[in-house]
Amino acid sequence: MTETPTFRSDITVELVKHSASDADVLFAARVSTAGEQSLEEIGKDPARSKGLINFLMRDRHGSPFEHNSMTFLVRAPIFVFREFHRHRVGWSYNEESGRYRQLDPEFYLPGEDRKLVQQGRPGKYEFVPGTAEQHALVGKVMEESYRQGYAAYRELLAAGVAREVARAVLPVGLFSSMYATCNARSLMHFLGLRTQDERAAVPSFPQREIEMVGERMEEEWARLMPLTHAAFNANGRVAP
């Protein structure tokens, strides 16, 4: 492993495994009226299938959207995961452990397009771009802090201090990795809260870094389940 701190502003999301398609929604919904023959109905009438998915979304019949699975590998700053883990229903997580391995010195720096300045009060505020001087200051101060924190971490490890104790000096801007598994219904709930979109019936004001994760997950999901994704957007991006 490298012991020289590195800095990045991107976040990576990789779809590593899935069993997810619009057909999963259709057979689950039609079993209520067709029984075991619901599997035979999937490919018969595409227009009818699209209408059924839209009906389920519009009238919030949510359980048919749970019969699928997507597993993502996410690499992001620790502070993103602390927000992410608030989403518990329909999600499973496994994150790399600072107890069992020495953590790599990879740290988050906001990109030039990251808005830095908060105006207004909680519940009624907005973020606006920072000045060039503010961006330079953020980069300088964060890098210095990260370097000091990781040097302290290495010093403790070299002295024989346990990893689970030494990690306490590391900042939440450190990158971590996790597997996150969800179904379409739980992902829709996540996206409704953690992304901004003009089609949303209920406005959301997520932190930009977790929104970046949501955007990448949504790209993969839209490819796997295009009818479900379209119905989600057409009905205000509200999870059924």
Question: Could you walk me through the main structural features you see in this protein, from its secondary elements to its overall organization?
Answer:
This protein is α+β, with helices and mostly antiparallel strands and 240 residues long. The chain has helices at residues 22-34, 46-58, 78-84, 132-158, 163-166, 184-194, 208-224, 226-234, and strands at 6-8, 12-19, 69-77, 91-95, 106-108, 117-121, 124-128, 175-182. The strands form three sheets. It has a four-stranded antiparallel beta sheet. Strands 1-5 form a two-stranded parallel sheet. It has a two-stranded antiparallel sheet with strand order 6-7. Helix 2 crosses helix 8.
Task: Note the main attributes of this structure.
240 residues; alpha+beta; 4-stranded antiparallel beta sheet; 42% helix
Outline of the structure:
Pfam families: Thy1 (PF02511). With 240 residues, the protein is of the alpha+beta class.
Order of helices and strands: EEHHEHEEEEHHEHHH
Structure class: alpha+beta
DSSP summary: helix tally: 8
The helicity comes to 40-55%
User: Which residues form runs of ≥5 with pLDDT under 50?
Assistant: none
Principal-axes shape call: globular
How confident overall, as mean pLDDT?
92
Give the total of beta strands.
8
Strand order of the largest sheet: 2-3-8-4
Largest sheet: 4 strands, antiparallel
Question: What is the rounded distance between the termini?
Answer: 45 Å
Strand content: 15-25%
